[in-house]
Description:
This protein is 27% helix and 18% strand. The protein is α+β, with helices and mostly antiparallel strands. It has two domains: 2-83, no CATH class; 99-170, no CATH class. Strand 9 (155-156) and strand 10 (162-163) form a beta hairpin.
Amino acid sequence: MNKVWIATEQAEGLPACVLVPTVTRAKELIQAPSSRLTDAGQLRRVVDLPNDFSRFSMQDRKRIETFMAWAQSQGAKDSYIAAHRRPWWRVNLRTPAPILMTYMARRAPAFVRNACGARILNIAHGLYPLIPLSESDLMLIIRWLNANVRLGGGRTYAGGLTKFEPGEVMRLPNPTP
Length: 177
């Protein structure tokens, strides 16, 4: 229910720590200058509430409860994904990935360095290298992926839309740093 969890005027007054800068559109990656996402200030915020509200002041808790009542009125508690969350309001955005990748388009995927530590919704994949890499190695890998990954690595659907599922991403060739 992105209409609930991507912050709008309904989220005004929530504590800043629950409003997380997040990539919510593939074009934010496709248009990233020099394949680097550097400014989280330009991104929309996602409401990512914790399991427990005891660390918040009474005023903040009241604001969170007001937001949650509105979210419930929008059907957020009854959505498929919320029904499988514990608790239902916990979006639980993952740790920022060093490399972000678009995965569905009529073009080759865009690989971008997540230099600002943005989180992602289900519009992108996060790539987490298994070994520590320097900034220059990360950028070399990103440039190589952007130059060498083609549409043929994904699944093409009617109308030419190509999607890269996680298993297909794992089979992409990788350069040696």
